[in-house]
Fold this protein.
Amino acid sequence: MSLPQHKTNEAAMTFSLPQLPYEKNALEPHISTQTFDFHYGKHHKAYVDKANDLVKGTALEGKPLEEAVVAAKKEGGPVFNNIGQIYNHNIFWLSMSPNGGGAPAGDLAEKINASFGSLDKFKEEFVAAGMGQFGSGWVWLVANGDKLEIAKTANAETPLTEGKQPLLVCDVWEHAYYLDYQNRRADFLKDFVDKLVNWEFAAEQLAKA
Ligand code: MN
């Protein structure tokens, strides 16, 4: 006889896959539905599932994500890699919008100009940093005290563990762009800063810094 199917109790899990803030086809033609099926539906989900397995019965079980990222950093290894990747992807989806691109406003615009000289200069430096990240990683706009900075991190690393507030991030792992751009990482980064970037989200993050 077969055992009854148990319903997965999502609430009991430490980490969960967040809902996308838009439909999977909303960023076409820049990012395809197929990329979302794999990147969000498989890669991001796998990090969530793996992290939940790894924290079972440990001090990290039940911790809020941001706290868990910082705590897991001391441990390193697969625990940090999977939790860091959940956090980084959560920020990445929010860093883009179907109405993205354009220019930031208010305090964020002033700080971009003060820190980089101009919006165009920021974009140039952001794309260059993404191109300069050898192998898998991330390129960020962060608030470090009063100043904004561009940061790049390898693998699952995140500026959050260095006390910096992430405002935006672009995923430069090949799985982020290969289906749509093949090896043209620069074109993906340019579309990110010109057409996809969600300045409203960045401004909300800045207000938290
Ligand atoms: Mn990714």
